[in-house]
Every structure is written in C-alpha cells, then in structure tokens.
Amino acid sequence: MTLGFAISTFVGAFIFPFLISMCWGKMVEAWGAIGGWMAAGFIVGTTWALNHGVGFIYQSGALVDQAWAAGVGLLAGAIYSGASLKKSVPTILSSIVGGAIAAFVIAMSG
C-alpha cells in the first residue's frame, strides 16, 4: 500500500464514525425515528459513495471495512470522552455475534 492509499484510507475511515457521532443523534432528536432512517440513508450512503465510489478506502478484500471504521472510531471516541470500556463490552460482543451471523448468511446465499 502506498502512502497516498494509506492516507486516503485513514481519511475515509475517519469520516464515517465522525459523521455518525456528529449527526445521527441530532437527526433522531429533531425528527424522531424517521430521523434515524434518514441518518442511515444519508450518512451511510454518502460515506459509502465516498469510500467505494470515489475510492477513499483502499480495499484489499475485506467486506466490512466501513463496519470496522465505525466500530473502532466510535469506541475510540467514547473512551476519549470518558466513557467506560467495561460498559461497552456487551455491545462489542453483540456486534461480533451479529457480524458472524451476517457473514454466515451471506456465505450461504452466494
């Protein structure tokens, strides 16, 4: 991976959790559940287009690059802001189980 790919991958991976932490909650507060759906479409869709359409993220075969970026970025942001890592363990474990189930379903359908 070249330095340019490394920098663009870092930037692409940073944008996703940054937008989630800055916008998603505010959209839900302002518009309720429909705001969550709008956030999902706008934030995830726009970031996906930047990362995969424009090519910010250098992809070497992983299918979960944005999921890793969101998970690691939001966890790091929460820890940096003073949240407890211990309280996030059930969410992390649930995410791993959900990801494993999703990977299994995708593997079986193709």
UniProtKB/TrEMBL annotation:
Keywords linked to the UniProt accession: Membrane, Transmembrane, Transmembrane helix
Superkingdom, natural source: Bacteria
Transmembrane annotation, as ranges: 6-24, 31-50, 56-80, 92-109
Keyword DNA-binding tagged: no
Entry protein name: High-affinity Fe2+/Pb2+ permease
